[in-house]
Amino acid sequence: MDRKVRIGIIGCGGIADAHANRYKKREREYGDVEIVALCDIAPHRAEGFGRIKDLPNARCYENHIEMLEKEDLDGVSVCTYNREHARCTIDALKHGVNVVCEKPMSVTLEEAVAMCKAEKESGKILSVGFQPRFASDMKQMKEIVRSGELGKVYYIQTGGGRRRGIPGYTFIEDSTAGIGAVGDIGCYSLDMVLDALNYPKPLTVTAFVSDYFGKNPNQYNEADRFSVDDFAAAFIRLEGGIVIDFRIAWAMNVDTPGDTIILGTEGGLRIPSDDCWNGDFKDDMTMYKTINGENIEYKIERMPADKKPHCWDGKIGSFVEAIKNGGPSPIPSSQILINQAIIDAMIKSAKLGKEVEVVIPEI
Ligand SMILES: NC(=O)c1ccc[n+]([C@@H]2O[C@H](COP(=O)([O-])OP(=O)(O)OC[C@H]3O[C@@H](n4cnc5c(N)ncnc54)[C@H](O)[C@@H]3O)[C@@H](O)[C@H]2O)c1
Q: Ligand 1 center to residue 316 CA distance, Å?
């Protein structure tokens, strides 16, 4: 490209801050990107954001279509609450603009399918914002699983969460978030293990979803607004004879729902439970093997903290690079569609009270 990559941000709330910081850092270090437009439906929020982030030249809008029509953009960061991800992403792609969309990809599978179709028709790229993929601990785990060292992987226990940690703001209402813990942090746990396995297709899901803490005014001070889930557990069958035993919580009466465990025929890997959204593990992974009849286990050394690259640099930098190179998408929608299909199936299974088949339409 013979000019800087021109970026617009749609949704100037909490996470837009991290996007703006990384674009600005990239501009300082590489000089190949600039934020030229900001948009938020809340009156004057885009202007306020521009002032705080010191973006005096960014033009401000309250309607993303108007921004897409008036600006000559190469890419947008979709940083709205979940319910608006699909609409803003599809509109940007239809205007020929590349998109990095925040996680979860959408609320429903239907929305995710529509986003993938819009991407295909536009010839532009859609990347979904899973920054942990760019963290060194996460990359190391993926390399181990993909190396075949574990043999045939057949069982995974994964998930995460906190004893008390229901977010507030736009995360807890159906009209804005659409889904609760299962989408907000569940999507990260799923991406961690599914990406390591190269995203096998899901076959069936049976799930349980609850809202015992969010809806209880003695447990949560915004219970009157709470209309999503705060806990989910699921059993997910994948093609290739792999099962995932999954649980996720914004609130529960225990400190952790357990480590991630990946069982293969030749070895087992334990990944200490942690906030999987930053990509750093709390402690070293442990490998379990049997060699010459002897059971052995050993820790796997990780990159020292001061040497680790920041995963947000990877998330934003990879998007800018992909725009400059004309693709491919760094975190492909074709993979995250599967992630979203599983979340969608969890919600459906929990509502029906039985196992559901996962059917992902052709794009
Ligand atoms: N990657 C991460 O680490 C991470 C962390 C937090 C949140 N998130 C995700 O980022 C998204 C936003 O979270 P947040 O904390 O910034 O929420 P937020 O409520 O603080 O911000 C969302 C903003 O989007 C605006 N908005 C909604 N619809 C819009 C539209 N059509 N056009 C323009 N603006 C619109 C709202 O007015 C609001 O200002 C969520 O999907 C969340 O899951 C990701």
A: 16
Q: Show the ligand 1 pocket: residues with CB < 6 angstroms.
A: 10-16, 39-42, 45, 64, 79-82, 84, 88, 102-103, 129, 131, 169-170, 184, 277
Cα separation values, 329 from 22, 145, 192, Å: 18, 23, 18
Once rounded to an integer, what is the mean pLDDT over residues 228-244?
A: 98
- Cα–Cα dist 69/92, whole Å: 10
Q: Which two tokens stand for residue 320?
A: 């800018």
Closest among 167, 150, 207 to 343, alpha carbons compared: 207
Residue 206 CA to residue 132 CA, distance in Å, equals 27
Does residue 345 surpass a pLDDT of 80? yes
* Average of per-residue pLDDT across 351-356: 98
Joined tokens for residue 261: 């465990």
For the chain, the structural domain boundaries read: 5-130+311-331, 133-309+341-357
Q: Which CATH architecture has domain 133-309+341-357?
A: 2-Layer Sandwich (3.30)
Structure tokens at 6: 């021109």
Name the nearest CA neighbour of 206 among 336, 361, 353.
353
356 Cα–ligand 1 center, Å: 30
DSSP 134: G
CA dihedral over 8, 13, 15, 20, signed as positive or negative: positive
Question: pTM above the 0.85 mark?
Answer: yes
Give the closest residue (by CA) to ligand 1 atom 25: 11
Tell me the pLDDT tens digit for each residue of 271-303. Answer: 997 766 678 898 999 999 999 999 999 999 999
Identify the CATH number of the domain defined by range 5-130+311-331: 3.40.50.720
Give the CA distances from residue 137 to residues 264, 280, 300, in Å, rounded to whole numbers and listed in that order.
Answer: 20, 6, 10
Question: Do residues 39 and 67 lie in contact, with contact meaning Cβ atoms separated by under 8 Å?
Answer: yes
Please give the Cα distance from 127 to 336 (Å, whole number).
9
Report the helix count and the strand count for the chain, using DSSP H and E.
10, 15
Tens of pLDDT, residue by residue over 115-159, are: 999 999 999 999 999 999 999 999 999 999 999 999 999 999 999
Summarize the confidence of residues 226-255 as an average pLDDT. Answer: 97
